[in-house]
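Incident review: delayed structure delivery

Summary: a single-chain prediction request sat in the queue longer than the usual turnaround. Root cause was a stuck worker, restarted by the on-call engineer. No data loss occurred. The affected request and its eventual output are reproduced below so the record is complete for anyone auditing the incident later.

Affected input:
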Amino acid sequence: MNQLRTRIKFCGITRAEDALAAAALGVDALGFIFVPGSPRCLTLDAAVAIRRRLPPLLSVVTLLRNPDSDEVWETIDAMQPHLLQFHGEETPDFCAGFGVPYLKAVAMRGLQRPLAEIARDYADAAALLLDGHAPGELGGQGKSFDWAAIAADAHKPLILAGGLNPHNVATAIRLAHPYAVDVSSGIESKPGIKDSGKMEAFVRHVRDADS
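Output delivered after worker restart:
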């Protein structure tokens, strides 16, 4: 997919100051996690309080893992997300059943099927998000995978996640040529707490790779 620049998503936002700093850096999307067990999991009230402070033209992504329909609808009603992100074993029909564009995460560690086949199954997905965890594991573990092995025949935007940080993101972009990159732990001082210097460096290295 030809593009002028690599889009950037910062995930695991837990504080308004981090969200606003990301917006000031020109990040394209922010991810809010609603997965019990994640150190970056937010209550809806806490997430809504941050969402109300965001500037326009910044995409809000809500991340869920194997939720029931009621949980998804509750999240949509509260957060008014631009994109849903499904990080479990959700079926294509389930993901597409809410009238909101969605991202489908793919566990790349031990992947058994070609990405092109998965992309056909999730034909309605806005993009596939490729993470470094194994099937059945929680994402956001900071694990990378073989970036050069990403198939170019998925015919769908691919978002690269898992193990990215300011030191390796330019290499990942040059190897994989993704539509977007997604980072969480790689720009943190501790889980859920973003580091302003790492955030700035990550964005700078993405822009350097694009140029």
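Verification: The beta strands are 7-10, 29-33, 59-64, 83-86, 102-107, 127-131, 158-160, 180-183, 188-190, 193-194.
Action items: add queue-age alerting; document worker restart procedure.
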